[in-house]
Amino acid sequence: MTAATAAKLMSYDDVIGRFDPVLGMEVHVELGTVTKMFCGCPTAFGAAPNTQVCPVCLAFPGALPVVNDKAVEMAIRIGLALNCSITPWGRFARKNYFYPDQPKNYQISQYDEPIATEGFLDVVLDDGETFRVEIERAHMEEDTGKLTHVGGETGRIHGASHSLIDYNRAGVPLVEIVTKPVVGAGERAPEVARAYVTALRDLLKALEVSDVRMDQGSLRCDANVSLMAKDAAEFGTRTETKNVNSLKSVEVAVRYEMRRQGAVLADGGSVTQETRHFQEADGSTRQGRRKETAEDYRYFPEPDLQPVAPDAAWVEELRGTLPEMPWLRRARIQEDWGLSDEEMRDLVNAGALDLIAATADAGAPADAARSWWVSYLSQQAKTRGEELDALPITPAQVAEVIALVADGKLTNKLARQVVDGVLAGEGGPAQVMADRGLEVVRDDGALQKAVDDALAANPDIVEKIKGGKVKAAGKIVGDVMKATRGQADPARVQELVIAACS
User: Which of 2, 116, 161, 221 could bond to 84 as cystine, CB 3.0-4.6 Å?
Assistant: First the structure.
């Protein structure tokens, strides 16, 4: 953070001493449907620009939308998991605003009749304390396209020479989850914000309604922050930091806004209601545009879509499909594995817990699964600059490697080479092992020759072994392992060396 930026901030302790922070979190979730919200275009991420579009999502005259039933089902399951009431009768609305990546110049959303209302999510803070975040609503809508600003230094519109528009994302199903004002968090407000988005991400992943990839924009957080004086009766003016795309950044953005707004208010100024953009480079926020009110959007009912009226029996049927909640699953796993709170917290923070559990579910011992994910695979993720769960290897494949080691077909060293091959896209573990010729050599004849060659090359070592210095056999074992490219079974080689020197 530059000195100029820092000079505009109040110390965090002073902010907490003079003001009470109020948060409001708006999280947009791209649903994992095969097709878009109102048309049959595919939703796969990463396709060539403007190849997943049609007259409906490009808003050609006369093209009519049709609701994606699977998206409605996913939205209801999200609402149920958030302890919400499901609206028995609702409808879509047009939210009118002009923006280049919105082909229709309005967004089909829900306004006064959302699919789910009045819920809550209990989140666990770093010290184990639970904080309840109340949910105001979860509503369905469609995503916008994507703008790429070219020619500037920051990748934003300011300073760019031109912009490119990709409409592939336009029309992808979204659920926006909006909290009620979060009060009472005090100095822990930034932590509460991070913990809430973390818990929500984990819940959505467990529901299998989204891949919740913040780096790809399938989970995006808008963090609303305001400050109110200790003796005030009304909330202060809020700002909305848009599209914060990592859990840590949510915490950093909230803390920064609290310090920035504190400095503005302390100087006798007033906070402007506006959107702001988070700067990953220094953890600051920068001014965006003045924030519109609901009246500015001129909502009115969408005339081309029937109301959404989920049958009560169907809603209860969907309630029965809800999985074990992530926090309950973690408590069960922690008890089953005998982990301390600190060990459990480390696994969760590393993004390894679900991967380890899935590997264990695939048949691997939990200890072995844990060792692979928190050591070698974590190192590979760091080297590749990827999240652990983004590595191109599945828990089932890791379990297969562990089984090959347990069966004596691979040593740990060879197993790492097999994993490297899987990560390189060479196929599954069995195929990589076969193609690279990595299976442990079990032919005693071949091993005996390698042992004999190593003994012949080291007569002094032979004399030491014959004299009772068994540890000296390590040199011979090492030579044999080198000669066999690590494919020999070290324990069997040791046996053959001792037998030959007896």
Answer: 116
Amino acid 172: pLDDT: 96
Domain(s) of CATH 1.10.10.410: residues in the chain? 444-500
Q: Read off the tokens for 3.
A: 């000195």
Q: What is the distance of C-alpha 207 from the center of its chain? A: 14
Beta carbons within 10 angstroms of residue 409's beta carbon: 18
Contacts of 469 (CB under 8 A, 6+ apart): none
Is residue 293's pLDDT more than 70? Answer: no
Cβ–Cβ under 8 Å, residues 364 and 394: no
126: Cβ contacts below 8 Å, ≥ 6 apart: 191, 195, 345
Alpha carbon distance 223, 218 (integer Å): 16
Q: Over the range 21-50, which residues count as b (16 or more CB within 10 Å of their CB) and which as e?
A: bbbbbbbbbbbbbebbbbbebebeeeeeee
Q: What would the pLDDT profile of 467-500 be if each residue is shown by its tens digit? A: 677 777 777 767 766 766 666 667 666 666 676 6
Per-residue pLDDT, averaged over 149-169, amounts to: 83
Please count the helices (runs of H) and the strands (runs of E) in the chain.
18, 14
Does the pTM surpass 0.90? The reply is no
